[in-house]
Amino acid sequence: MSDQRIKVFAYSGYRGEEIPRAMIFRDVTIDVVKILNMWIEEGVEDRGKKRFFEIKGDDRKSYRIYYLEKTGEWYYKVED
Prior knowledge:
Blueprint: E1 4-13, E2 16-25, E3 28-42, E4 49-57, E5 62-68, E6 73-76
Antiparallel strand pairs: 1-2, 1-6, 2-3, 3-4, 4-5, 5-6
């Protein structure tokens, strides 16, 4: 199963799409209550960066999302 593209409303700092504030996931808007963790992964072959965020939503669920810098798109990480 591949990761799902999502719409994220983010605080834009000097790097552009920086900190997620809310997201639309399965047609529901979920506000980000807390950022639990964040990190960057860089692809070996294409050197593309993904900025990951583990967040807690106002629905009390945790989500792992990431921003793909190369395309400027947000994704929900589908766990294997």
